[in-house]
Structures are given as structure tokens and as C-alpha cells.
């Protein structure tokens, strides 16, 4: 790929990244227990973070229910909302897997009008609420590993929210049945 | 890695990013590609403020801020607007990764700042032709 070499940058990222992913390095850390090596993001967060993870899980479930209600109310929005729902499903999987015995709550889907603009606005509001909650959880997490995962969830949510808000008319989804 | 080490690593990256953005700005025509010019200019300003803030935070943490290199390697053509845009997007992708490392190594105000900046870099990728990802800044989770 053309462009300036990012090798130096990449090297630094790798150096920083390896400090977060290597059990050997983390063994010297008194906050985070050694993480698993199965590609799972986070070592189990310390007990004091369990409640925080549960609150983020509940918030992700709530946001997913809003997305589901939105696609039911306006099926034409499905192509636009599916990537958001997929991302949150991945976020949820990872967080639920990070804490043993995490209960995945259910959330009653809200009632949304069969109106494209209003429903999309409701989704954008819901995503912003989710981002605020995840952000707060990131700042207060005791585990640095968990904070990093939550920061990525917050950044992803911000990206998806911005992407939806950029084109409120939803022209990109006009081809949907 | 201490908070200070992570701050210094982030600062070193910002020095490089500012250098690259300076080059990208010079290679972007305000009249021919005004949207890209605006996106690159805004990013340059953001990264300049980020560098200044990092210098302050390094000092607050008891360190001497690392200096910028005299120059950074440019190994590809930056002639077309698409090349500039792609390079700028890669800078933001890499920036989000470095900032997320700082999130992990810090707490309190520093972590909150790093989170805000990582989120900005993630969202700004959309202005540079990128699309939303599941794990911005943490690609190994994909």
C-alpha cells in the first residue's frame, strides 16, 4: 500500500500491544491476572469489575432490543442497522465470556413507529446512551485490560452512531425490500 | 510498562503523526479536494493539540517529554488525493491503537483523555473514507 512507512509506528504499537497481550508481561502486574492465550480479550476482570461488566452487558442488551425493534418497525433499515447489531453482538459475546456466570438479561423491545426518520433518530439516541454508559465503565474499570476492551466498544459505538447520523435520510438503505 | 512509558510512547507516535499530517496537508489541494483538505487540516490541529497535551502529561508524570525525530520515513507516493486519504486513515487507525494502549496503562483523567482521543480517531476515520469497525484500536479482538 502506498504511503509513508508506518513500520516504526507499527513497531511501537506492537511493543505496547504485546505488553497487554503477553501473560508473561502481565504476570508482573498486580491488577490484572494473567490472561488466557485463546484469543479471548481479557483475562477475567477482577471481582470489583464484575458489577461494571454486568451493567455494560445489560446496556448492550437494551441497545440490541432497540435495534431489533427498529428493524421490525422499518424493515428497510435492516441493511443499515445489521452491521451495528453484529458489532454489538460481538461486544456482548466477549464481555459475557470474560466473566464467569454473567447473566445475560433480557430487555423488552421498545415500541417504535413505522417511520424511517423517527425510528433512525431513536436508534441514534440509543447508541449515544450506550456510548455514554460504556465510556463511564471504561473510566472506572479497575482492570486496564477491561478498560481497553471497553474503550474499543465505546469507539466502535461512536463510529456506528456517527455513521448512522451522517445520513439520516437513509438513502443508502433505499434498495432494501 | 508504567503510565509514564505509555505516555512517552504515545507522544512519540504523535510526533510522527504530526510530521505525516504536515506532509499530507502540503500534498492536498484545497481547491481540487476541499473536503479532504478540511479533513486533513482538522486532523493536523487535533494531533497538534494532542501532542501538546501529552507533553504536559509527561511532565506531570515526572518525565522529560521525548523529542520528535528530525524526519520520518516516507516510502510511498502521495500524489493522488486517494493516496493521501488512505494514508491519513491509516494514521488514525494506528493512533487509536496507541491510545487504547494508554487507556489500559492509565487511570483517572489520563485514561479519560486517552479514551476521548481514541474515540475521535475512530470517528475521524469515517471522514477519511473508512467505515465503522467492531474493534477499533484493538484489531486482535476481531
UniProtKB/TrEMBL annotation, chain A:
Signal sequence interval, chain numbering: 1-27
Keywords: Signal
Highest taxon listed in the record's lineage: Bacteria
Record's keyword annotation contains Signal: yes
Region of interest (Disordered), ranges: 27-49
Identification of the protein by name: DUF4439 domain-containing protein
UniProtKB/TrEMBL annotation, chain B:
SUPFAM superfamilies: Ferritin-like (SSF47240)
Stretches assigned to coiled coil: none
Top-level taxon: Bacteria
InterPro entries: DUF4439 (IPR029447), Ferritin-like (IPR012347), Ferritin-like_SF (IPR009078)
Domain DUF4439: 6-140
Protein name (record): DUF4439 domain-containing protein
Amino acid at each position: 500500500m502506498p504511503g509513508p512507512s508506518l513500520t516504526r509506528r507499527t513497531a511501537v504499537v506492537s511493543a505496547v500491544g504485546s505488553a497487554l497481550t503477553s501473560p508473561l508481561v502481565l504476570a508482573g502486574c498486580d491488577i490484572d491476572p494473567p490472561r488466557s492465550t485463546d484469543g479471548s480479550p481479557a483475562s477475567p476482570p477482577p471481582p470489583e469489575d464484575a458489577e461494571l461488566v454486568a451493567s455494560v452487558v445489560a446496556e448492550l442488551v437494551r441497545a440490541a432490543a432497540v435495534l431489533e425493534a427498529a428493524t421490525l418497525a422499518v424493515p428497510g433499515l435492516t441493511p443499515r442497522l445489521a452491521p451495528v447489531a453484529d458489532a454489538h453482538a460481538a461486544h456482548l459475546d466477549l464481555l459475557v465470556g470474560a466473566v464467569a456466570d454473567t447473566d445475560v438479561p433480557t430487555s423488552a423491545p421498545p415500541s417504535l413507529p413505522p417511520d424511517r426518520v423517527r425510528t433512525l433518530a431513536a436508534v441514534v439516541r440509543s447508541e449515544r446512551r450506550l456510548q455514554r454508559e460504556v465510556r463511564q465503565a471504561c473510566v472506572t474499570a479497575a482492570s486496564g485490560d477491561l478498560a481497553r476492551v471497553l474503550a474499543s466498544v465505546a469507539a466502535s459505538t461512536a463510529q456506528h452512531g456517527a455513521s448512522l447520523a451522517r445520513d439520516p435520510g437513509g438513502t443508502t438503505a433505499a434498495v432494501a425490500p | 510498562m508504567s503510565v509514564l512509558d505509555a505516555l512517552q510512547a504515545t507522544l512519540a507516535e504523535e510526533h510522527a503523526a504530526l510530521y505525516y499530517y504536515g506532509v499530507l496537508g502540503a500534498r492536498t489541494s484545497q481547491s481540487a479536494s476541499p473536503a479532504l483538505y478540511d479533513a486533513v487540516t482538522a486532523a493536523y490541529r487535533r494531533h497538534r493539540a494532542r501532542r501538546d497535551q501529552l507533553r504536559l502529561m509527561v511532565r506531570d508524570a515526572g518525565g522529560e517529554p521525548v523529542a520528535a525525530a528530525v524526519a520520518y520515513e516516507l516510502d510511498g507516493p502521495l500524489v493522488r488525493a486517494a493516496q493521501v486519504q488512505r494514508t491519513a486513515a491509516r494514521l488514525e487507525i494506528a493512533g487509536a491503537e496507541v491510545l487504547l494502549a494508554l487507556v489500559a496503562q492509565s487511570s483517572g483523567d489520563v485514561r479519560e483523555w486517552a479514551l476521548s482521543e481514541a474515540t475521535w480517531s475512530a470517528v475521524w476515520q469515517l471522514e477519511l473514507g473508512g467505515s465503522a469497525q467492531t474493534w477499533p484500536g484493538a484489531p486482535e479482538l476481531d
